[in-house]
Amino acid sequence: MLPTSPRLRRMLIAYAVNELGTWFGYVALAVGVYDHTHSAIATAGLFIARGLLPALLAPLLVTRIERSSRRGGLAALYLLETLLAVGLAVLLWSFWLPGVLVLVAIDGAAAVAATALIRASAAQISDQEGEEAQRQANAMLNVVFMFTFAVGPAIGGLIVHAAGGPVALLMDAVSFAVAGTLLLGLSVHVDAAVGESIRARLGEALRHVQRLPALRSLLITEAVAVVFFASVEPVEVVYAKATLHAGDLGLGLLLGIWGAGAALGALIFARASSRPLGSTLSVGTLCVGIAYLGFAAAPTLAPACAAALVGGIGNGIQWPSLVSAVQRLTPAEMQGRLMSAIGSMTALCPALGFALGGVLTATTSTRVAMLSAGTVATLATGAFLRLWLRGPLREAEQAAVALTLQ
């Protein structure tokens, strides 16, 4: 069911269009860099560039835009991404790796900030209609994300195979332009930000995390898990093309099946919203670890696709669990900063994982890299189980309520 608020509907449509186009660019850049360099290190460098700078700049961008009373701050981010996508198409056509890495880093910062502002704005708008509306808005964003995760890579693989990477990037640019147009009149201003410096607002968010030990433990545990989840991403291109000999279409199929599983997992999570978040985090993490172990053992594309389905379902359950838990523990006026913190975590931690995966692949093999990631990710399930069995999420929710009443 679509949200009743016109602003929420526009945000949902813009988010869907942008996420779909982003996958076209993702596949185009991953395949293009590998095809031009035939280097796992260079491919890992692409993902690292998209992680390090965004992790540092995204919270600053979000905080600065929230302080501004002018409309169009979010649309301006999408306009910037439009221009960057066009530039990347040109650099992929006349390949120049340093230029690609620089533009990818800037684009990553804008992308993380835009996604954080979308999620925060959706939470704030729906919060005015009650807790149920907020959960519904969050669930719809998660389903959209996982649905585009399901179909975007497969379509992107087809576009790259048929028309080439630069064309896929130009289509990505169009998606940014459409999203920005839809959000032209949207204000993401936060009234509480007036008169506060960027440093003060970031410090306030940090103190909020420090006051809730369970929230801090949740974020640290997820950060460790994300490092190992992400170590597989730069390996996937080499794994599909060199280990399984499945080509560009095989890579798109693997990513697409993982995405289909993620969409299914998001629906499973939405229907199991009454279950403890610690249990869904644990189950999702375990499924992802099992999938990576399956990749390590798969002799051909078919069993690898089966493993991808399991991992996708786990991904679709695990990530919404984390976002929902953080939102439940965060007051409305602080949603943007905490969502940007999650965005930074999912930019910086993958950068570390990309480096790990690239080094493992270059020094050993893709199967060893998959085995390492699967083993550690499976063991990381124990940390989430501990969070669940000791009940810190429940205690943290009670503490958050108490803090809002002070």
What does this structure look like?
The protein is an all-alpha fold. It has one domain: Growth Hormone, Chain: A (Up-down Bundle). Helix content is 85%, strand content 0%. It has 15 helices and no strands. Helix 5 runs antiparallel to helix 10, helix 9 packs antiparallel against helix 14 and helix 11 runs antiparallel to helix 12. The longest helix has 33 residues. The chain is globular. The two termini are 36 Å apart.
Concise overview:
By secondary structure, the chain is an all-alpha fold.
Summary tags:
mainly alpha; 15 helices; 406 residues; single chain; Growth Hormone, Chain: A; globular; disordered C terminus
Topology:
Blueprint: H1 6-37, H2 40-67, H3 73-93, H4 97-127, H5 131-163, H6 165-182, H7 198-211, H8 213-230, H9 233-243, H10 247-271, H11 277-297, H12 301-328, H13 335-363, H14 366-389, H15 392-405
Tell me the span between the first and last alpha carbons: 36 Å
Secondary structure category: mainly alpha
Percent helix, as a range, is over 70%
Q: Runs with pLDDT <50, length 5+?
A: 191-195, 400-406
Q: What is the helix/strand order?
A: HHHHHHHHHHHHHHH
- CATH C-level class: Mainly Alpha
| Biggest β-sheet description | none
**How many distinct domains?**
1
| CATH homology-level superfamily | MFS general substrate transporter like domains
What would the average pLDDT be, to the nearest integer? 78
Into which percentage range does the β-strand content fall? under 5%
Count of DSSP strands: 0
Q: Tell me, what's the shape?
A: globular
- Tally of DSSP helical segments: 15
CATH fold-type name: Growth Hormone, Chain: A
Radius of gyration: 20 Å
